[in-house]
């Protein structure tokens, strides 16, 4: 999948904004939002928030997790832990990128937050690489993807499944030849055509 | 890697690889197969290299006309090197279709150690694909990879590029700057034309 498609999926996340205009409820495919009251915080999908922000129609409320201290602890945990730790949510990178991109002035200490999120991302990506290599070396037949976000899983996507596929195929092809002489009774249920 | 794919080009290429074979029977009028032979007939006991597709069909006859030997990359000496450190081997030179040919050849290995070597080699060399994907020195890092490994690398690079371009877009000032630069250039080019 293209990263932009995942961004599109992630844009459906609900975020808080403070509009500076008043409007009735609006009805969208993904639900109804509003009514908009100037100065009162409300929840809208991320894509709508970005659109309104670009038109200077609202102020973004920083999401709970976009906080220097909280992110510091996540970063430390991520550094210490051998496994992937739980992220604030599935699309943290997309939310961070979009909000910090269009509404950096609404977020306190935006530059620092940007750096920390990038650090966390980099730590996780390098961890992903090393664990992929370790998975192949150890000869494991499956990998656990706990706490990996969609964007991160997508980044290994053609390579890792293809490699596992290929390993499996080599295993099956080489095993078939050795087993066809040893035990021919295994296939008897599925028909004897398998036996040479 | 598709063994049963009749029309797959890569499979055709794999089965066209030459394997050393020993003929078990005298074959009349087949001397042309052996370029060094002067006679018309092919003698039993001759060792020549023939394509895998031919070897396979001669081997499956009853009684078999040939006994298939392992190509040198699957032999004991190379197996030892591969098991020690597969990453040092230049697969592009030694075995373009190492894994695919290995799958075919594995059944001719009496000790059946080829299969373990194939798996082990693949596991070890996965690291090389990973590093070739992110490497800036793409020529040197891709060079020692076999044909199928190159395929993998190519598709991994596409993902990698897409992701890094996604990360750069938006809050990176470079994109707008180059766009403006292009725009000016275009204008200048237009002015020069008119």
From TrEMBL, chain A:
Q: Pfam families, from UniProt?
A: PSF2_N (PF25005), Sld5 (PF05916)
Q: Where is the DNA replication complex GINS protein PSF2 N-terminal domain?
A: 3-61
Region ranges (Disordered):
174-196
Mark the transmembrane ranges: none
Q: Which InterPro entries match?
A: GINS_A, GINS_bundle-like_dom_sf, GINS_Psf2, PSF2_N
Gene Ontology annotations for the cellular component aspect, listed alphabetically: CMG complex; GINS complex
Supply the name of the protein: DNA replication complex GINS protein PSF2
Automatic annotation (TrEMBL), chain B:
- Highest taxon in the source lineage: Eukaryota
Q: Name one Pfam family in it.
A: Sld5
Cellular compartments annotated: Nucleus
Might you report a single GO cellular component term?
Answer: GINS complex
Q: Which residues form the GINS subunit domain?
A: 75-166
Q: Which GO terms describe its biological process?
A: mitotic DNA replication initiation
Ranges of residues in domain DNA replication complex GINS protein PSF3 N-terminal: 8-59
Query: Which keywords are on file for this protein?
Result: DNA replication, Nucleus
Q: What is its main location?
A: nucleus
Checking PANTHER family in the record gives: DNA REPLICATION COMPLEX GINS PROTEIN PSF3
Q: What does this protein do?
A: Required for correct functioning of the GINS complex, a complex that plays an essential role in the initiation of DNA replication, and progression of DNA replication forks. GINS complex is a core component of CDC45-MCM-GINS (CMG) helicase, the molecular machine that unwinds template DNA during replication, and around which the replisome is built. The GINS complex plays an essential role in the initiation of DNA replication.
Assembly and interaction partners: Component of the GINS complex.
The record's family statement is:
Belongs to the GINS3/PSF3 family.
> Mind telling me what this protein is named?
DNA replication complex GINS protein PSF3
Q: What are the top taxonomic ranks of the organism?
A: Eukaryota, Metazoa, Ecdysozoa, Arthropoda, Hexapoda
